Amino acid sequence: MDFSNWVKHGLVFLNSGGHPKNMSHSANPLPVKISGNVFRVFYSGRDEFNRSSVAAVDVDISTLEILKSVSEPFVEHGEEDDFFSHGISIGNIYKVNGNSYILYMGWRVENDEHWFGQVGRLRLNQDHTLSFDGSKPYMALDEEDPISLSYPWVMEHEGLYRMWYGSTVSWDAGNGEMLHVIKYAESLDGNSWVKKGVAIPFELGVAQAFSRPTVIIDSESVFHMWFSYRSGSGSTYRIGYSKSSDGKEWSFPKLSLSVGENGWDSEMVEYPYVIEHEGEYIMFFNGSAYGKTGFGIARHPAL
């Protein structure tokens, strides 16, 4: 199974504004179940200066009806000195000791130089709102990851917490494209992490710029991962797939979801988030312009 036969169900939500901190984009859709088929889908919207904050829409994923739009952000980008001064881009939701958290990439630009990211943590409250869980990076740059970090996916499996996250090796790998890889880390308590190095194989000019991993473990304990990736040969984002028997060593990426023939996702597809719901895998994903044209869903029978 290479998951190359997803069925797209079109555009679900296009952000038309409604708040000064949320004027465009609905990037990095993150669905949280409210009840039945109703999910609150958090996303990163942008202001006029391209700084991102987190708002949401409530969606019936059976009918794809938008039930409620919360355009006022739950959490906003930081002040000038904060590590998330230029934006918040969300990863996934996970639980530790009964508390629900979302790790996010905090964007920052210093002295008009290249942007870089570090990882912060949000708390998902019982009323499906968000709040900051601390003002400092949850995972900061270090010797292992000195340039930039992005979009972690965290899950607990058989008593072990696992994290897959993005790390920049170089802003230009020699072909005009960055080398940004997906790495792996483990934790016994969901808070203190031991980094294990690169997880997803890469090849310059084929698959070298990865982002936003999303992972499902099937009934036979096989790990399935989807992610955005660029080849480094000039192409825009596509959504790739890899699998693993242990979550540590993965197969070489394959194309899983490509662009549409026309319309909102005809230039790129990126930032997947896969859930299992009522016998299906449902992928939330963005289309062209890094989420400016909205998000949609695709469906695949569950294994």
Structure overview:
There is one protein chain. The N and C termini lie close together (9 Å). The protein has strands at 7-13, 24-35, 38-46, 52-60, 65-75, 87-96, 99-108, 116-124, 130-132, 149-157, 160-170, 179-187, 194-198, 209-217, 223-230, 238-244, 254-257, 270-277, 280-286, 295-301. The model has no long low-confidence stretch (mean pLDDT 96). It has 303 residues and is an all-beta fold. It has a four-stranded antiparallel sheet with strand order 1-20-19-18, with no helix packed on it. Strands 2-3-4-5 form a four-stranded antiparallel sheet, with no helix packed on it. The chain has a four-stranded antiparallel sheet with strand order 6-7-8-9, with no helix packed on it.
